[in-house]
Amino acid sequence: MRQPSDETVPVVLVIPPFHSCEIPSIGASILQSELAQQGISCRIVYANIILAGMIGLNKYDEICQLATGNGLAGECIFSKKAFDLEESVFPNFSCSEDSAALLFEKIGLSAKRSPSPEEWGRLEAECSLFIDKVTQEISVLKPQIIGFSSTSQQINSSIALAKSIKNRLPGAVIVVGGNNCDGMMGEEIAKQGFFEYVFQGEADFAFADFCRAYLLHRVLPIEKLIKCDPPDDIDTIPTPDYTDYFVQSRPLALQQTVVLFESSRGCWWGQKHQCSFCGLDGMAKKYRFKSAEKVLSELELLEKKCPEATTFFATDLNCPYSYFTDLFPKIAASVFCREISYWVKSNITFAQLLVMKRAGVTLLGPGIESLSTRLLGLLNKGSNASDNIRMLRDCRDLDIKIMWNILVGIPGDRSEDYADLSRLIPLIQHLVPPAMIPVSIQRFSPYFERRDAHDVTEVRPFSGYERAFPDTFDRTRIAFFFTARFPSESRERPEILDSVICQIRRWHERWQNLPRPSLKIKHHEDNTWLVEDSRDYACKAQTVIDAPAYALLERYLTPRQRMPLEEDELLDRMKDLGYLIEIDGKLLSVVCGLRERSVDMSVPG
Length: 605
Hints:
This protein is α/β, with parallel strands linked by helices. The chain is built from 25 helices and 23 strands.
């Protein structure tokens, strides 16, 4: 950690717990760059890294994991200090008061080992020492403006730090911004008075203008809630400066560090057909994306300035389609040579995946969410099960890692949806396994905003909000996550998920050990091919097939209805072996390696 010095800095930005230590803050780093362009010196203090350095990275990561459930452990641990409470605030890790929580427990997403009250008390004491340490470090810099970045469970850590710093630096102007300030959440935070100003929306330029007006002219806005207009041209947004992050994270000796870059804002799908469960888009409904030239220049600059970075992760909610013809070919032809990750829509083609692969894309988040076309329709995903499976197979073919979920507890789901899934999983065990997550009601999502249309009733904040925030807060306004009542057979009868849960656990077990399950074809001799099959489903480890069988599998590389005059006996054999699956009235080959004789899948360099 940086040693105290006589240096003073007019603006300090604070990243409080429980932001991941492996990822820098792109928002604060953009603000720092914009301030620099206006001639204003700024320091980013990664308070999360300070806490991890004090208690150990492993313990910090354990608390981060505890902070993912509806017990709101990340908010509870700072409640005592934030609100001057006499007793500790111990989160309810079981949260068994509703059917959604029962799903969490059944799936195994509840805390594996919750800390005892005594352990929790020690954690709170360590957090209290941490607040003193951060306050001391910031007070040495004598900033005139201090800004907190607050997303996810960072409200109470921000409040606790802000109160302590204000006592030490009473003349400083303390502000907050981030996703926790969207909509009425920001209004509620502003009403509480812990911060002089609350920035709502995209403050890329508004914050720098605020700082300049105050530092040069001592002018402050009248309204405490500053609503920021989103920039139309995001090419004008400066490249983030991650220097402070890499200096401060170095003592942790992290195994991997991720550099975030931004090529678009909003979600082009959500702008027209917002997914029913998703509130991540918040208030930024307008989709905008950067030019390919701007993105490439930023990547090359970040690669040069961040040599420690292991992966470059796009923050985009949905990759722009135009990038397949302009950005990714430019990256492939450039000197940029790092691994890239992107969020995409699951219906992109093999050819588009190959373009991304050649540009260095090694990890994708395709937003698959289900392998049931009916459930995908309820979720308003604009995709179907056969295309989702096709993409999983294509990514395995191209050795592109993939992150995806199966959502359960969906409004309107039925037992047969999961019975179909249980029958399907053994056939695709050679493809990357998913996480399994119950649906929650997120603020800004259609389930929340248009609840009548989805038969969602009795909406109330996660139980953790009642523990984490005192009665002076309107918890219905500060909350982002909610529970509710709605028709869902998997919530009403969680036992219908037993078979699926068993199958997914087995799926993960097979992938945790080498060799991973495989279903791959390769040329054998003459006009024959060898299919190697190590799925649990396999009836034979190796099967030799002839040219007609190969042509049949190749014909169904993309899902389609059965072709006229198809040979019944051959088709039935391929289905019995599990090489062809039938879904939604279409046939799809799930065998990997079928493209290798016709497509050069190598990556230059």
